[in-house]
Design brief:
Distance between the termini of chain B: 43 Å
Shape of chain B: globular
Largest interface: A-B, 90 and 72 residues
Strand content of chain A: 15-25%
Helix content of chain A: 25-40%
Strand order of the largest sheet of chain A: 2-1-5-4-3-6-7
Largest sheet of chain B: 9 strands, mixed
Structural class of chain A: alpha+beta
Oligomer: heterodimer
Structural class of chain B: alpha+beta
Radius of gyration of chain B: 26 Å
Number of domains of chain A: 3
Radius of gyration of chain A: 24 Å
């Protein structure tokens, strides 16, 4: 490639990134579903003909990384020669789409004249596809209970709507209007990206474009390899636990990973994890590749836009038929192992790279979903929100308080005023959980509390699968407080639990407490002034300041008792 | 006589327009960040303005945004509903960097211990669930007094639906904490989403005390020197506001910095008969792109400072870090990058010889021959081309490129980024650039305008008179603006027209009262009603102008049609069978000020020999060769003059580039109109 072309590469790269951004804006602005426009439960990207990611836009990180696999399977099934300009293809077969069947992948091919030059793809959460339970399923035992399976089905053929498929979607649906509205938004956003790339290729010509994307990917690879080379070499393993598989509530699930860093690659080996589960906790392979890639990118190139080149030094092993590589008809609906997996990788790396990786975050997405028939409108309602967690402390500083789990960066909380306007419930409070962050020289971030008070008979689902183990601290830091859900608090039937699906009567109450992050480093080494600041802000209680940090504070004057502090801290040293 | 003073990061621009003689005087003085009022007075002096003859003084200031950038605003307390202490700190719990597991939100403007809860609660319809508890309010006020608070932001849940409790809190604070400034959320935004409303309120409270004291001081000093005219401030949403309103709602000033140029663009668009403009304002550190459609500025109802939302109508301006001082660098993977870091005014580009060693956009433009080292800023600033070349050769060496290849690459990458910014405010909003002309101003706008236009197939570039001072010129053409809005969710299928008209009647009353306070009667007022609409079930809305602020039953189908068309245009699809609903009703009230006449320049023939200064070679990115550009002096051009590219038109503080094949003509106000060969 000539030297000046390097400038063209940069121009084309910028263009692709802005095209992905425009797809996102189009989707957000026209969708019908809070889960998309507030929670951003989607992942989108632009790909080449070999299904390699060229540019993406922030959404659910685990989606984007699974989309390339889903795209590949979709095209392989159809045959590239059977894909025409103007087609839009839908895939909800989980072993291909790399998610559960309600996360539907839409693919739009990009043509330059007759020549296929790439794809845009968006995976997003659909509110319904006739799955066994409204809203969400927690206890399926087979894929055939999990909703309509769309196997690379064309909803548009050469630009013409496939009315029969639309009818099938409409008639297998509890919320057809909102689902079709969202699907239209998804298609429109795919087409937006398609048009932008067409214009780009029109402008630069196919040859220049194809040369440029090779260089963009090689550049992505070079950076990743350079960063990888700076990391210590070695092999470390770790395991962590999920609450249960949704069917057998008494048995915890194990994820085990062995991570090896050599001079030029990282190998993530999931062998030895849980066998396939009876309940819906299994991961399609594409998703396992995706979440492993998420952790890899986070420790190597978190600061550059993602493309497929970044992931070339990563090798993932996941034995077929185990929890990390589901085969039909294994149920996959809750795919919760995908939320835990990246942090099991970090847990392994924490042993060898204590200055690179953070301690464990609050560990889950802490989603609460309510649904029912709204007494005001007589229409079905479904609203949901994920909750922020504490991030883990790390060598460079404290973990952030109340921030979406590391698998869902673009995701936003659903505002109280929006939830109350749309659904028959009152949110009683919304605040950071004092003392939930793991103590450390660098404190873990705080989890969040939100309390819901139902005003009409409804159903509630909570999507939380990590309530039985604590978010781990590291390098001498202590664990954070784990999250949990309290149903009917303060009553005789009060229940402290994780994932549930219960009917709620009017006046029933549920509290969602998300987890705090683990601490990093010995808490007795934390700067006493920082402890004082945390106490002043009531992030940390007086008791915890003394007990966990060895800092004694006079509550009247809000000053540090240096002598008493010295006595405690000195004694332990 | 009118005067405008626009304070920028480096320079303060001033323009005096004498409407009797038609003379326009443009000056620049250095910005005085320590005491900005001094800079304003110095600007008055430099422009030799006769202070007692000034009818209108229009002012733009970066005071608010600077306070936010440097976190030097007021000590603010938040008052919120009991149980919701952390709405502000939690924000939306999201983050833009996708893979950063150590992400921190930007430092909060208010620490947690200065957030206080009052016992009260409304529901979304404005019904009281828990009455306002005066005892807890008094306790909050007491703690605020103890904490030496200068400014209080009150944002209670659902106050957009019923402001009663916020007003009650204001009363308690005014009794218990005299002298403390108070901002109530419902006065700034009558829309739902508690975090966004809180953030807007906090930003207002944060900049209020310093804005007030600055404006009072400046007004006092001007009055004591004999100023007897109207003192107006530019608003981020377009138009101007009186000093009194600016002191009450300074949040409208925060993002007003780049507004003047866009407002000026809207007015100029009508004068010169090009009512669709994309404005490109390129300064030292950044580039602001915006869009004027049919002679109107385009407004978004939410903007951000850093990640902090400001929910007030704001001119849709997209800012990127691509200015004259933007620094070129090489990424780890070996790719040439430009910006967003800038060398600023100090040390500035390498060629300024003020110690800057980084190669900047300006250094690159100088190296390939677009700029004249002897005529930079009209010769006021001496620049050194060899320093520019030294800085660029360092990059060129590691990139294994020639000097000219690297320099033209820097310009090319910057132009592509600017084209990206134009795409955001046009294509992404559903406007086709081909239907627009670029209005290029700021020091650098006229330089990149034609290349960006070529990139996006925009047929025309217009360079206004005095491009480097155009923001200040735009400020001379303002009207007074008041915006009022009310969330009112109602389906259009079964719309109760009476209630909608009641809401509009309230909005009209508020508008009329505000305009009356500013001294406008009905004859000098105008009203622009609009509705935020969406398909039922969607969240985001499209703002649709309405025929009047009184709904007639016969108009509904036309309004729905307008909405469908707008949705199709913006997003590429519409859903004709889906029910449409109104979410928010808006009314913009205008207090109409007499429009000044812009002076015209003399007529000339086609002969431009007198203006020709010579020629110089410019390196071409595409061909890799030098091409000779004729150089002209803008001061010598007359209306009707015609120049064929390749050519360069120089004037103090700016340089217009006309590429080969393009043709420029001079308009009657002295505007340069470059017609592109596409």
């Amino acid at each position: 490639m000539s030297k000046l072309d390097q400038i063209t590469v940069e121009v084309i790269h910028n263009y692709l990134l802005s095209a992905a951004k425009e797809m996102e804006r189009n989707l957000m602005r026209t969708s019908y579903n809070t889960i998309i426009y507030e929670i951003r439960d989607f992942g989108l990207g632009i790909y080449d003909t070999q299904f390699r990611l060229l540019a993406e836009s922030p959404g659910l990180a685990i989606f984007t990384r699974g989309n390339d696999y889903g795209l590949m399977k979709t095209v392989e099934f159809l045959g590239e020669e059977n894909i025409d300009p103007g087609d839009i293809v839908l895939t909800s077969y989980p072993y291909w789409s790399s998610a559960h069947p309600l996360d539907v992948l839409a693919v739009s091919p990009i043509f330059h004249g007759d020549r296929l030059i790439g794809y845009t793809a968006i995976k997003q959460h659909w509110l319904d596809l006739g799955q066994k339970d409204p809203g969400y399923c927690l206890d399926t035992t087979s894929v055939y209970q999990e909703g309509l399976l769309l196997p690379a089905a064309k909803i548009y053929k050469q630009g013409v709507l496939n009315q029969e498929l639309l009818n099938i979607i409409r008639f297998n649906n509890r919320l057809p209007n909102r689902v079709i509205g969202d699907m239209n938004a998804q298609i429109s956003a795919c087409r937006t990206g398609e048009r932008r790339v067409e214009e780009l290729v029109e402008k630069f010509g196919v040859d220049t474009y194809e040369q440029a994307i090779e260089e963009i990917l090689d550049h992505g690879e070079r950076i990743a390899r350079a960063r990888l080379a700076e990391l210590p070499r070695g092999t470390w393993s770790a395991e962590d636990w999920l609450d249960d598989d949704g069917v057998d509530k008494d048995t915890m699930l194990k994820l085990k990973v062995e991570v090896t860093i050599t001079g030029d690659e990282m190998i993530v080996d999931w062998s030895g994890s849980q066998p396939a589960t009876v309940g819906p906790m299994n991961l399609p392979l594409g998703l396992t590749l995706g979440v492993s890639g998420l952790a890899f990118k986070g420790v190597t190139t978190p600061d550059t836009p993602a493309n497929a080149g970044n992931f070339r030094p990563l090798k993932v092993i996941a034995p077929e038929g185990e929890i990390m590589h589901a085969i039909p008809p294994a149920p996959t609906f809750t795919i919760w192992a995908s939320l835990l997996a990246p942090e099991v990788i970090l847990k392994a790396l924490a042993q060898g790279l204590p200055d690179v990786v953070p301690a464990c975050s609050g560990g889950d997405i802490f989603d609460v979903m309510g649904l029912g028939v709204h007494p005001r409108t007589g229409r079905p309602w479904l609203e949901a929100t994920n909750e922020g967690v504490g991030f883990g402390g790390h060598a460079d500083g404290d973990g952030e308080d109340g921030i979406m789990h590391l698998t869902e960066p673009g995701c936003r909380n659903n505002p109280v005023e929006v939830l109350e306007m749309k659904a028959p419930w009152i949110v009683e409070n919304y605040y950071l959980r004092q003392d939930s962050g793991g103590p450390g020289e660098h404190r873990g971030g705080l989890g969040v509390t939100r309390t819901y008070h139902f005003l009409a008979p409804s159903s509630v689902l909570t999507l939380v699968k990590k309530t039985k183990t604590k978010p781990w601290g590291m390098a001498g830091g202590k664990d954070g407080e784990n999250g949990h859900v309290i149903v009917w608090p303060g009553t005789e039937k009060e229940e402290i639990t994780g994932a549930i699906s219960y009917p709620m009567a009017a006046e029933d109450v549920i509290v969602n407490n998300s987890g705090g992050g683990g601490g990093w480093g010995d808490p007795f080494k934390r700067d006493p002034d920082k402890v004082l600041e945390d106490v002043r802000n009531e992030f940390v209680s007086l008791a915890s300041a003394k007990e966990d940090y060895g800092v004694v504070i006079d509550p009247k004057t809000m000053t540090i008792d240096a002598k008493a502090t010295e006595a405690i801290r000195g004694k332990s040293a | 006589m009118r005067i405008s003073v626009d304070i920028g990061g480096t320079f303060t621009d001033v323009i005096v327009l004498d409407e009797e003689t038609g003379s326009l005087r443009l000056e620049k003085v250095e910005t005085t960040p320590q005491n900005p009022a001094d800079g304003v007075l110095a600007a008055f002096a430099k422009a030799e303005a006769e202070i007692d003859k000034i009818d209108y003084f229009v002012h733009g200031t970066t005071l608010g945004i600077n306070a936010l950038l440097t976190r030097t605003g007021a000590r603010v307390a938040i008052v919120t509903t009991k149980g919701f202490r952390d709405v502000y700190l939690l924000a939306r719990t999201s983050r833009e960097p996708m893979y950063d597991f150590k992400y921190r939100k930007p430092e909060s403007l208010v620490p947690r211990y200065l957030t206080f809860e009052v016992n009260e609660r409304m529901d979304y319809q404005g019904n009281v669930l828990t009455p306002f508890d005066k005892v807890s309010a008094a306790e909050v006020a007491r703690r605020i007094r103890e904490q030496d608070i200068e400014s209080v932001a009150v944002c209670l849940l659902h106050s957009y639906a019923n402001p009663k409790h916020e007003l009650a809190m204001e009363e308690v604070l005014s009794q218990e904490c005299p002298g403390v400034s108070v901002t109530l959320s419902h006065n700034l935004s009558r829309e739902y989403r508690e975090y966004e409303r809180t953030s807007t309120t906090v930003i207002d409270a944060y900049v209020k005390p310093i804005t007030r004291s600055y404006l009072e001081k400046l007004d006092g000093e001007l009055r004591s020197e004999g100023f007897a005219g109207r003192f107006l401030m530019t608003r981020s949403g377009g138009g101007a506001m009186t000093l009194e309103v600016a002191k009450e709602q300074p949040v409208h000033l925060v993002l007003s910095g780049p507004a003047g140029g866009v407002i000026g663009g809207a007015h100029l668009s009508k004068l010169i008969g090009h009512e669709n403009l994309i404005t490109l304002d390129m300064g030292g550190t950044s580039l602001d792109a915006s869009l004027v459609a049919n002679g109107q500025v385009t407004v978004e109802n939410e903007q951000y400072f850093q990640t902090l939302p400001i929910s007030i109508p704001t001119i849709d301006i997209h800012t990127i870090g691509a200015g004259g001082g933007s620094i070129a660098w090489i990424s780890e993977g070996g790719h040439l990058q430009v910006g967003p870091k800038s060398a600023g005014a100090v040390p500035g580009p390498a060629c300024y010889d003020k110690g800057g060693e980084d190669a900047t956009f300006t250094d690159a433009a100088l190296t390939i021959g677009y700029l004249d080292p002897d005529n930079f800023l009209g010769g006021e600033i001496k620049i050194d081309a060899t320093l520019a070349e030294q800085a660029i050769s360092k990059l060129a060496k590691s990139l294994e490129m020639s000097l000219n290849e690297a320099a033209s690459g820097i310009v090319r990458i910057s132009e592509a980024k600017i084209a990206g910014a134009v795409r955001v405010i046009s294509i992404e909003r559903g406007y086709h650039p081909k239907e627009f002309s670029i209005l290029a101003f700021g020091g650098g706008g006229p330089f990149v305008g034609a290349s960006v236009a070529h990139e996006l197939s925009i047929p025309r570039v217009i360079v206004p008179p005095g491009p480097a001072n155009f923001s200040a010129l735009g400020m001379l053409m303002v009207d007074i603006v008041h915006d009022f809005a009310q969330t009112h969710v109602v389906g259009l299928e079964d719309v109760d027209i009476k209630t909608v008209n009641e809401v509009f009647a309230d909005l009209l009353l508020s508008c009329e009262e505000a305009l009356a306070r500013d001294g406008f009667d009905q004859k000098h007022s105008a009203f622009l009603p609009s509705a935020e609409m969406r398909y039922q079930g969607q969240e985001h809305t499209v703002n649709i102008p309405l025929p009047g602020h009184k709904f007639e039953p016969g108009q509904v189908s036309g309004i729905v049609e307008d909405f469908n068309t707008a949705h199709e245009r913006q997003y590429g699809h519409s859903m004709l069978e889906d029910p449409v609903e109104i979410v928010t009703l808006r009314l913009r009230g205008l207090g109409l000020l007499p429009r000044p006449d812009l002076p015209k320049i003399g007529n000339g023939s086609g002969d431009v020999k007198g203006a020709r200064k010579g020629s110089r070679p410019v390196y071409q990115y595409d061909s890799g060769e030098h091409l000779s550009y004729s150089v002209y002096d803008r001061g010598q051009l007359l209306s009707g003059n015609r120049i064929e590219g390749p050519a360069i038109v120089e004037e103090p503080s700016s340089t217009t580039v006309i590429h080969g094949g393009d043709v420029m003509t001079v308009g009657e106000y002295g505007e340069l109109v470059v017609q592109l060969s596409l």
